[in-house]
Amino acid sequence: MKTKKKIGVGGRGSGVSGIKFFAVVLLFLFASGCAPKKISLYESLTETRNNIVQLAISLHGKPFKSGAKGPDAFDCSGLVHYVYKKFDIVLPITTGGLNMTGHEVPRGSVLPGDLVFFKIKKDLHIGIMVGGGGFVHASKSKGVTIDDINSGYWSRNLQGFRCIL
């Protein structure tokens, strides 16, 4: 009659059981600093929105230049394109293309990082909402600046909001 030998990790007949081996491996991992670490493959939506807003605000004071896509000067769509691209979100370059991206958001549901659109004469103008009615945009007269959608001029020309995230 044949007898079966228990084969463990230590070689033939070492007698190291699976449970002991597992315990030794865990001990090694924790002792060597190779314990599993929490690695975020994707930022949370809130974190992404905050980062977009912070970057947009940090560009305050950069000059306006028609057709400019940054980083030294911007037009309104170039600012939006530049900011989102920094977070690996590639958007259309034109206001018309941006106005068809993402989904429409009612005014009461707007969040920081959402896009705001204005119809000024026959042109579209775009900015990034920063919260509390404020938005960052590239103004022809002031460069990259922060304004309030509730002020008379912007309120009269407000077209709508779109969510990209």
| CATH architectural group of the largest domain | Alpha-Beta Complex
Rough shape? globular
Counted by DSSP, the helix tally is: 5
User: Which stretches are low in confidence, meaning pLDDT under 50 for 5 or more residues running?
Assistant: 1-42
Portion of residues in beta strands equals: 15-25%
H and E order: EEHHHHEEEEEHE
Structural class: alpha+beta
Oligomer kind: single chain
| Relative helix content | 25-40%
How can the largest sheet be summarized? 6 strands, antiparallel
Overall structural domain count: 2
Identify the CATH class of the largest domain: Alpha Beta
Q: Can you walk through the features of this model?
A:
With 165 residues, the protein is α+β, with helices and mostly antiparallel strands. The chain has two domains: 39 residues, no CATH class; 119 residues, Alpha-Beta Complex (endopeptidase fold (from Nostoc punctiforme)), CATH 3.90.1720.10. Helices cover 29% and strands 24% of the residues. The strands form two sheets. The chain has a six-stranded antiparallel sheet with strand order 3-8-4-5-6-7. A two-stranded antiparallel sheet has the order 1-2. It is globular, with a radius of gyration of 27 Å.
List keywords for this structure.
165 residues; endopeptidase fold (from Nostoc punctiforme); 2 domains; six-stranded antiparallel beta sheet; two-stranded antiparallel ribbon
Question: Helices and strands in order, then pairings?
Answer:
Blueprint: E1 7-8, E2 11-12, H1 18-31, H2 45-58, H3 76-85, H4 95-98, E3 103-105, E4 115-120, E5 123-131, E6 134-139, E7 143-148, H5 152-157, E8 158-163
Antiparallel strand pairs: 1-2, 3-8, 4-5, 4-8, 5-6, 6-7
